[in-house]
Model the fold of this input.
Amino acid sequence: FYSGSDFLPEGNRLSATGSFGFATRTIAGTTLIRSSTGIFASSPTLVKTFGSEVYAAFNNALFRSTDAGTNWSKFDIPFLLQPGAEPVTDLEKSGDTLFLLTQGGLLVSADNGSTWPTTYTKTINGYKLMFGFPGELWIRRDYTSVTVVDRHNPSATLRNFGCYINNPSDQGADYLILPNSNLIISPGLSYGYLYASSDSGTTWVQRGAFNSGVKPWRLIRLNTGRLIAYGLNLAPSYSDDLGLTWATSTLNPYSI
Done:
């Protein structure tokens, strides 16, 4: 989901964001219906979905919809309203626990957003969250490093790792754990290679290469097991053998 210029299909609904804010329609409908009840009429800086819930952030404000974007409610997070508060960069959810990341640190709510801490749960400069191995929360700090914290005690750092590949030198653009394994894979920013680590990011080896020097920066896994790698203005690549070989899609989605 790309705020500003893209669409999110979910079930029988299609949603979109842009300068108008948030809009949605049923797949059978002919027009997008703008959703303005309880939400800003401007482009969200972040949109995430968790089951039937949709979350949208506007710099320092966070909203939630439980009806596919028709109505919204704003979270009361006083810490984000203080002078100098950093903007929201990502959000993850596990049960009733919300992990909210800003450029200044991590805030954790254990009661589904009803209450929030008055200081950072962990002070850290990050821009992306993901759940790692069991019990872990990964905080992407930049393109070269990941800080791993205890999901149940996020103030505790377990380790740090990065994707630094020698001969040639390269940096990881994204990270994905393959299911039922301890293998982390990462597309490199510089040379169009895919790398893998079996020791929690300590060492890396080349696993595959993308076609024609393509250098994707995002890696996802579909429910079918297919891997999709894509980047800005690039036709997506896909792999059905866990990244060993890649083919280039003939489709080029509008905004990626």
Remarks:
- The radius of gyration is 19 Å.
- The chain has no helices and 26 strands.
